[in-house]
Amino acid sequence: MIDTRIARIGGSLIQRGPWGVQLRALSVTSLAKADSQRSALSTIWVPTGGITANEDEFGHGKLVRGGFLRQAHSGIFQLLPLGLRVQDKIEKLIDKHMRSVGASRLSLSTISSEELWRKSDRLESVAPELFRLKDRKETPLILSPTHEEEITMLVAGIVNSYKDLPIRLYQITRKYRDERRPRHGLLRSREFLMKDLYTFDLTTLEAVETYRQVSAAYRAFFDELKLPYLVAEASSGDMGGDLSHEYHLPSSVGEDTVINCDSCGYTANDEVATLRPPSTAYDGSESPPASHFRVWRGISKDRKALINAWYPRSSGASAESGLNLHAVKSAVPELDATIEDPLPLWGASLESGTTKVINVVDGRLVPVFESVRDQLPLLPEDLQPYQVEYSTIDSTASGGGLNLARITDGDACPRCEEGALKIHRALECGHTFQLGTRYSVPLDACVTIPRSGIPAAAAEEGLIPGSRIPLQMGCHGVGVSRIFGAVAEILADEQGLNWPRAIAPFEVAIIPASDLAEDSLRIYDLLAAGDNSRNGLDVVLDDRQRSFVWKMKDADMHPLNLDTLEPQQLAQVKKQLDEELEHLTTSFAQLHAAQNKFKDCLRCVKSRAAAPEGSNSVLVPLTNSLYVRGELADADTVLVDVGTGFLVEKKLKSAEKFYESKVEELGNNLKDLEVIVQRKQTNARTIEEVLRQKIMAGQGQGDQQA
C-alpha cells in the first residue's frame, strides 16, 4: 500500500500526512450557494486570519489561527464551530467503543460537596487543585475534577442486589482543575472534557475480566485514530487500586516519560518502570572511599524524617540527574519529593525529639554500606550534635536489591534477556484503573450475598453467604480535550494542521473554479453518497466570498483527511484535476502577458521621465508602419490604462509608481500560481498511481477468488 499524502481536490493536491488521502479544492471566485442538503462553509463561522504565525508555533497556535478555538481566560478555552465538529467526532468514536462493552451513558453533576470528598478521604490530598465555592448557606462545594465519589453514591443508593451487576456507566463531561501553570493550550488546561467509564462487579475475578474488556475497547479506540500509541503500566496515585495502565501518544512536547523495551514490548510509566536488580559494585572485601557514594536528601510529609538516598557515583551526573526519585518514593511512601531544600524544614523539627533519619541504600552499595557508614555525611555538619534515630532500607518488599539509578536509553530490560530500554516523551490521553473497594467501602456501595443459591463467582472467591460485600470498582478515563490538542501538536506541520480521518472536521472540502460549479456539485453528491450510501464521505463546499489566494492560505490551515476512495471516485477526481490544470495554465499565460504589457508601459514612462528638458517631440503612429512627428502639449502628464477600460491622467512619477505596483502584484500572483500548478501536476501523478494500485489490487482479489 502506498504511503499517500495528499491535500486538496479541485485545487492543488499537496502531499501530506501518512494517514491517508486528503482532498481540498481551490477557487478564484465563489460557488453559487449550495442547496440546504449540502454543507457549505458560508453557513459555518470559521474566523481565520488576522493572527500572525510565530516561527516556533505549536499545534495550539495553529488551532487558534485555523478558527478551531479561542482562549477565554488562563487555561480556559472557547470551542468554535470547527473545533466543536472535531470534539463531536471524538465523542461519537468513544460512544461506539463504549457500546461495545455494554456501557450506558449518563450525566453527573459538575458540582460536588466537600463533605462527600472528605468521607472518601480524598479531599486533603487533592485540595490545592480544587476549585472551591460556597452556596448562600455557606455549604462548601467543589467543581469536580473527577466523579468517583458521585457515581459511587448514586449506585450505592440504588443497587442492593448482586443480580443488578455488572454495571457499566460512562459520561462525557467537563472537568475542572486549578492548574498552577496552564500551558500548551488544551494539553494542560483548567477546564477540560473527559470521558469517565465506571464499572461495578461483585468479585475480583469479574472485575479483572471487565478490566480486560475495557482495555480491548481502548485499544480499538486508539487504533481507529491511526496514530502510534503506547500502553504503559502505571501508578494508581490518588485514585487508589492496584491495577493501572496509561495510554500515551508519543510527542516531543509530552510531559510524561514512558519506558519501552525494543524486544519484548515491556512498557511502563517512569514512575513504576524498573531496572534489572543491580549487581553489587563491591563485594565487601575492601571498602571503597566515601567519595564513591552519592547522596540525595529528601523529607517526609510530616517533616519529621530526613531521607538519605545513597547510590554509586557516576561521572558527570548530578545528584538529581542520576537518581530515580520514583524508586526512592516506592521505598519510602511518606517522602515529599516536591521539597527542593529539606534541611531547614527538618532542622526545625529537631527540638521536638521525634525526628529520625532513613537511609535508603542502592543494592550495589549494600555489602559495604555499614563499613563506610562512619565516613559518610549522614547529617549535615551543622546538625551533627543532635541525637536522632537511624533506620536503613536496603531491599524491596520482595527482598530484592533496590536500584535507585535513573533509567537511561539502552539499559537492559528487566523482563527479557535480549531487550534494551528506550525512553519516550509522551502525552497521556487515557488511563484505566482497577479501584477495588477504594470507594465502595467508605461510601457503603455494597450488596448482600444470599444465604442460599450463592452465585458461582462468589463461591469461587470464598464470599460468605448472607454477608454484605463491597462492590469491586473500575474507573477508565479518556481525555477528549487532551486528544484534540495532542493530535494537533503531533500531526501539525509547517503548512498547517492535519487530522486523522476519524475526527477530521470534514473528510473532503471542495472549492471549485467559477466555470466548474456544476461539476463540483456532481462531485459533492458522488462523494457524499458513497457506494450505495454505505460509505459516503463528510463533504463541505467552500462557497465563501473570498479571493483565490485567501482560500488557498486558509485551506492550508485545515487539511481534511480521506483514507480511501473508490476507483470511480478517483477517476472523477483526476478528471477534475486535469480540467483545473488546463484552466490554471491558461490563467498563468494570461497573467504573464498582462505583466509584460505593464512592464512595457513602465519602460515608456521611465524613458519619458529621463528625456532632456524641452524635448517634447514624439513619433505618432498613423498605421502599423507609418509614423509622423508630433509635439507633446504637456510632457509631464500621461494617460494611464488602469485596467478597467478607462484612461486616467497621471503625472510621470505617479504613473511610474502605479506601473511598478502592478508589475510587482502580478509577479506575486504568478509565483503563487506557479506553485499551485506544480503541486497539481505532482498530485495528478499521485492520483494516477493510487488509482493504478487500486485497480491492480482489485484484479489480484479477483484472481484469488477465481
From TrEMBL:
Pfam families: Prefoldin, tRNA-synt_2b. GO terms for biological process: prolyl-tRNA aminoacylation. PROSITE patterns: AA_TRNA_LIGASE_II. This is proline--tRNA ligase. GO terms for cellular component: mitochondrion. GO terms for molecular function: ATP binding; proline-tRNA ligase activity. Keywords: Aminoacyl-tRNA synthetase, ATP-binding, Chaperone, Ligase, Nucleotide-binding, Protein biosynthesis. It is an enzyme of class 6 (ligase). Its EC number is 6.1.1.15. Belongs to the prefoldin subunit alpha family. Residues 83-354 form the Aminoacyl-transfer RNA synthetases class-II family profile domain. It comes from Fusarium oxysporum f. sp. conglutinans. It catalyses: tRNA(Pro) + L-proline + ATP = L-prolyl-tRNA(Pro) + AMP + diphosphate.
